[in-house]
Amino acid sequence: MNKPVLVTQLNYHIISNCWQIMLCGREPGGTNADELGVCIAAKEEMGHSCWAIAGTLCGGEVQGSTAQKIGVCTCCAIYKLYNRSTGAKGQDVIDTFPDEERRYQNIQRRNTQTA
After folding, report:
1. How far apart are CA 51 and CA 86, in angstroms?
2. Residue 112 · residue 106 · CB < 8 Å
3. 105 Cβ partners below 8 Å, 6+ apart?
4. Which of 14, 34, 84, 115 has a CA positioned 20 to 30 A from the CA of residue 109?
5. Contact (Cβ atoms closer than 8 angstroms) between residue 47 and residue 17
């Protein structure tokens, strides 16, 4: 009975948020949060799906909509790691963070409808 909980806790520590990997300091309480603001990925709890939301800070600049920034994102280590179809840990994100996955799928549906 405890095994799935332990596996989930283990996965949580292995599957870092984008701000933990990129060291941008824009998470709540981060070194750059006061100056640059808390990143929308952190606010929306989308640290494994940052490419799907507008307004993230990449390369020192605030990025636009998903459609505007996806070309940059597909070259990013976070996208390559957590992309649901090709990322090395995409399935782990789906399994470990179901709330984030629901938000991600909702965003994907909206983007498809407006394209």
Report:
1. 14
2. no
3. none
4. 14
5. yes
